[in-house]
Amino acid sequence: MKLAKILLSSTLLFSLQSFGAINPNAIKNELLKKYALNYSDTRQMAELKAETLNYGGQSVEALIEVMKNGKYPEKNRWVATFLLGQIMGDKSAPFIAKFTKHPNWIMRMASLKTLLALKQDKFGGEYARLLTDESLIVRTQALENIKTLKLQKYSANVWSMLYDRRNYYEPTVKGAIKARKRSNIIKNVIATIGELKFQDARAPLIKMVQKDKYNDIFSEMDLALTAITGHKSPNGDIKAKRLFWNRKALDVTIM
């Protein structure tokens, strides 16, 4: 009888200890404490990531709280977004997509990158909207999402980036503003137009490729036209390539 009681007590104690080890609230609270800290040591951050992944679905509540609450360090909120996507997979996409409208550009960026990692092509409308985001970094990532996921539906949105003044910069010399310069995102826009095979860009690009003022993006335009038309300009200098595309333009006009 005493042995039975001892065994019963031991079983109950073990059960309580086990329950305590997997108590969802305990896990959430422990993770939140750790995500509230600023980590300068990459090893510590790696350990936190590993611990979070080890808890799997039990860490979801904590990750959501970190993403939503501005009191947590931005780097940790970024990490939480990626880990939520890694743990929940496609099921997390609708929630993560909401952060494309977050006031903090870092969270918009984290949302875009996580959705791209999940290969989410259902949120093209959100990516297209962010092509006009106030942050150049966010605009660049939104462009990358559309390009990588080959979302041809939004080709016109990509093309319109060529007319957004924010994608250019105005250098100053001794206080005087010089002519606007194209930032690197413009090269990415042209490359993306080619990847998406945007036919409406064919005629404008052939005109642009003839002008010296576009020499800085000539190679991108040349490659884009090759992708759009299926024709490759000859090896050689710019003059030969311009002549080739001018002839192609005439061919289209004659036809």
Strand content: under 5%
Q: Radius of gyration in whole Å, from Cα?
A: 27 Å
* Order of strands across the main sheet: 1-4
| Molecular shape | elongated
Strand segment count: 4
What class do helices, strands and sheet pairing give?
mainly alpha
- Compute the average pLDDT: 89
Question: What is the number of helices?
Answer: 14
What's the helical proportion of residues? Answer: 55-70%
- End-to-end separation in angstroms reads 101 Å
Can you give a write-up of this model?
With 255 residues, the chain is mostly helical. It is 63% helix and 3% strand. The protein has 14 helices and 4 strands. A two-stranded antiparallel ribbon has the order 1-4. Strands 2-3 form a two-stranded antiparallel sheet. Helix 5 runs parallel beside helix 7 and helix 9 runs parallel beside helix 11. The protein is elongated and about 75 Å long. The termini are far apart. The N terminus is likely disordered.
